[in-house]
């Protein structure tokens, strides 16, 4: 603990060097994420973990962090990724030097979800699936239903939740080896403001916005307009349309987040960087990139 406290104290003398370090990238095969609130020490906590990472690269026994991400927002957090060996140790951490901290496990980055599709299991109940697959780290199961003629019809597709950050490629159900594919849910849209990417608690909208005409002050079930206008892209369709460029963008963000097991801000930036602006073609985007010279050294 003395070494940790001394290391943390030394961060204050290195602020000029590391004040702009926001995240450390890594490529861990086995990563568990724990959330570290900023509390009263701000980015000093991130600097502390960065120092731990540098020590880890030199082989020090205090090496803990494989990856550090700062999540923006009103209550900013540092997401620290460690290997499973140190996960339980980090979760019990209550102080960094004299500063109190809380390090709960991240609610979503420590689990993975996959879709099991097999017609042989269409009549198997959720309880039976959990009992059969519990020893393969399955902690939840939900069958996908479709609505037809006002009735819910069960399908052969089951969403399995695993207590592991990395989704297994397959599972063994009885004598059957079943392949899995990542579960990519649809984007969540707030029905009050019609915007994507936030929950009811974080919604800043004050007035109800219609999902059909994009006007404020009424809901879609009482809309009298004859024309459609999207609240997000201003296109001639409802805000719920799956052909909306905003819906397609948000769906891709979710896919990148799940497949790379990263945070939403990271995934959003990746998709944004590889998506041309509206009105600019992919070929034009490529032509605008600087060309590398062939100068030989």
Can you walk me through this structure?
- With 297 residues, the protein is of the alpha+beta class.
- The protein folds into three domains: 16-36 and 63-107; 112-182; 185-277, no CATH class.
- It is 26% helix and 21% strand.
- It is built from eight helices and ten strands.
- It has helices at 2-11, 15-18, 44-57, 84-91, 126-133, 245-260, 264-274, 282-288; strands spanning 32-37, 67-71, 77-82, 95-96, 99-100, 112-117, 138-148, 151-162, 170-173, 176-182.
- It has a five-stranded antiparallel sheet, with helices on one face. It has a three-stranded antiparallel sheet with strand order 1-3-2.
- The protein is globular and about 60 Å long.
- The termini are far apart.
- Residues 1-32, 36-42, 58-63, 279-286 and 290-297 have low confidence and may be disordered.
- Keywords: Membrane, Transmembrane, Transmembrane helix.
- The chain crosses the membrane at residues 35-53.
- This is CCHC-type domain-containing protein.
